[in-house]
Amino acid sequence: MPEGGPDAPTALRAFAEDRERLDTVRDLLAYGFPVALRFPDVRGAWYELAADPLPPDSTSGLRPIESPPCTAVTEVPALIADLARVCTPLPGAAPVRRMLCALTVHASPEHVGAVRVLDRGAGTVWASFTDQLPPWRVRFMPPCSFSCRLYRDHPGRCRPPCREVVSCD
User: Fold this and answer.
1) Would you say 114 and 126 are in contact if contact means Cβ atoms under 8 Å apart?
2) With CB atoms counted within 10 Å of each terminal CB, which end of the chain scores lower, N or C?
3) Three-state SS string across 5-57, please?
4) What is the pLDDT of residue 86?
């Protein structure tokens, strides 16, 4: 290699060892976006790494790569349970007394847990909390379009459909 010239194999190896960049690519593919990366080499050549997301029906034999779940848990105060009952006229399960954060491990201090699951897949009543504050916000959210058991526009990756919203009773 000429001194200081671009080196595609070295750049590609560095990319493969960078967990943050790999997670970004994985997220883009998980949300249905194609990815193309070009690594320049000497004399105008390049190496290109391109990937298209798989259609949803073709992934049944693949095991999803998933971040570990957040382990935050909180008690649900009576006021929050009452708000979860009255914030929507739709029928559903009784509010839980304790709830787990439903997200994967996240950098934000705000956790989100399911307080009340509505009947027939209509959605869920969610509450926000932190490690220092009890639940303070209750909101009804329609389900995620990817059937992941979370709500539409949730932060982070979709959870696999097998994860149930469970109470810690």
Assistant:
1) yes
2) C
3) CCCHHHHHHHHHCCHHHHHHHHHHHHCCCCEEEEEECHHHCEEEEEECCCCHH
4) 92
What amino acid is encoded at 5 in this protein? Answer: G
Which two tokens mark 65? 């790569």
Question: Mean pLDDT per 10-residue run, the chain (169 residues)?
Answer: 70 86 81 80 80 66 63 95 91 93 85 91 90 92 76 68 36
Question: What does the DSSP 8-state code read for residue 58?
Answer: G
User: Residue 62: what pLDDT?
Assistant: 52
Question: Distance of CA 129 to CAs 70, 93, 100, 101, 111, Å?
Answer: 13, 21, 10, 9, 5
The number of CA neighbours under 13 Å toward the Cβ of 95 is 25
Using DSSP's 3-state secondary structure scheme, residue 92 falls into: strand
